[in-house]
Amino acid sequence: MLTIRIQREDFDPAKEAEALTHGRTDVGALVTFTGLCRSEAGALCALELEHYPGMAEMELERIAQEARARWPVDGIVVLHRYGKIEPGERIVFVAVSGGHRGEAFHAAEYIMDFLKTSAPFWKREHHVDGSAGGWVEAKDADDTAAERWKRK
Amino acid sequence: MKAIYFAWVRERIGKPEEEIAPPAHVVTVGDLLSWLKGKGEEYEYAFENAQVIRVAMDKKHVRHDAKIEGAREIAFFPPMTGG
Predict the structure, then answer these.
(1) Element (H, E) at B48
(2) Residues B82, A49: C-beta atoms closer than 8 Å
(3) Among A73, A108, A113, B16, which one is least packed by beta carbons within 10 Å?
(4) d(CA B11, CA B27)
(5) Which residue, B80, B39, B26, B24, is CA-closest to B56?
């Protein structure tokens, strides 16, 4: 099972995760990751997420398929929101189910690392003082995180 | 072909998309970036640091040495910051 969704609305992590294990007796591991909007010590009032419709879905699916080709995992859910998101709100969700924890952990981390560096989303900051903040800059640490999977 | 711009590339150029018709000597993505830079100061500004610009052809990532022949849609954007 592979579920990819890009949506403006919030989602329910428990419900999404439940869909991977409901009625199953062969799933031994379920790993979930939820990414939230930080306030950056109170300076940020919102993040605005822009995406490339069509390509964003394709990239998330490609990344999820690569993870599945690499580790023997069962179900994968990848959700990403766009639009204005306030501190404390959910932005992204990844869930991976499988027989054992090792492959589920690896696949979930792999998906997040490549989502950050190759899925076409961009964040812009809105500041509490009303000033329009800038576009968030890509971090070298994210490239390094994605890069390490290539050496294996 | 259709050119699409995202995030600060879109803001600097001042439009989300447009039809472009590059001349025959524009063969690669890199050539196209150079040609676009010559279209006006807003393009010059958007692509002043051309090596950081990411490019997708028909919704797939490509490198700057990729050939643009046959592409229907070319998107230009900054490094991605989702997640």
Answers:
(1) none
(2) yes
(3) B16
(4) 26
(5) B80
DSSP state, residue B50: G
Quote the ipTM score: 0.96
Residue A152 has pLDDT above 80, yes or no: no
CATH architecture of A2-151: Alpha-Beta Complex (3.90)
Burial class (CB in 10 A: 0-12, 13-18, 19+), B76: buried
Q: How far apart are CA A125 and CA A33, in angstroms?
A: 23
Of A59, A112, A122, the CB nearest to B77: A122
Residue A65 is encoded by which pair of tokens? 């398929």
Residue contact A120–B82, C-beta within 8 A: yes
Architecture per CATH, B2-77: Roll (3.10)
Of B6, B78, B83, the CB nearest to A116: B83
What pTM did the predictor assign? Answer: 0.95
List pLDDT tens digits, range B1-60: 999 999 999 999 999 999 999 999 999 999 999 999 999 999 999 999 999 999 999 999
Q: Please tell me whether residue B47 adopts helix, strand or coil conformation.
A: coil
Q: Residue A106's closest CA among A91, A96, A92? A: A96
